[in-house]
Structure formats: C-alpha cells, structure tokens
Amino acid sequence: MSVEKFFSQEEKKQITDAIAEAEKNTSGEIRLHMEDQCTIDVLDRAAYIFGKLKMHETAQRNGVLFYLAVNDRKFAILGDAGINKLVPINFWDEIKETMLSYFKDGKFADGLSKGILMAGEQLKANFPYHHEDVNELSDEISFDKNL
After folding, report:
1. Residue ranges of the alpha helices (H) in 68-141?
2. Is the pTM of this model over 0.85?
C-alpha cells in the first residue's frame, strides 16, 4: 500500500483539522510528512525533511515537524530552534510516548492528532496568536517522495 493511502480520507481530515486547531491560537507552524521508508537515522531524515519543507524559515523559528515512515514503523518529532529553547528538555519525548500508546493499538490518526494538539498547546503557551499572524506553511500532509 502506498503511503498516501495509509490513512482514509476521514483520517486525513482528522489530522489536518488537528493541525488547524493546534495552530489556531499560536503563531507556530505544524507539518506532517509521511514516507514509505526511512533507511537512515529517523531524526537525521526528519531534519532533512524539515529543511526541504522550509520549516526553518518561519519568522519566529517555531515550526514543528511530525515525521512518519510507515513501512519501517519509525517516527520523529522535530521542533525548530525557537520552540526548542522554550520547552522542557523531555517535552518531545512525552508527546512521542503518548503517540506510541495510540500507535500500539493501531490508532495512528488518533495518536498523531493527539500529539499535534499537545504540541499546539506548548506553541500557544510560548508563541501566542497575534492578529497579524499568517499561516506560513501548509496544513496539508506532505508525501513528496522527491524530497
């Protein structure tokens, strides 16, 4: 099965709705990138994708990438410098553990949605929404195999 078909249309909407909800009260940006496989260290691949998606170009360096390699059962969460200097040291691990508890039950869309909303709460606390904020990055799931 191709990675684009891993989630149903309803699950994709659930995830993009979670991204929109998480971003509603913050200037932070959240993306999900999915691939079939990851043949290198998952954090290295997530960092590469982070750059290719230009997530480091947000005004406040407050982008968060959720990366999922479906067939290899690998995932990572990567925050940019602006958010990383403000969150507790184990913050991303807490989100990963929460997501993993859903993943173990096969509830991947629920796990991603929960993790995204958790990241959104931290972004909201550290980067509250201002009326002049714009959505700097797409909320759609990225599947580009050419990255």
Report:
1. 81-84, 91-103, 108-126
2. yes
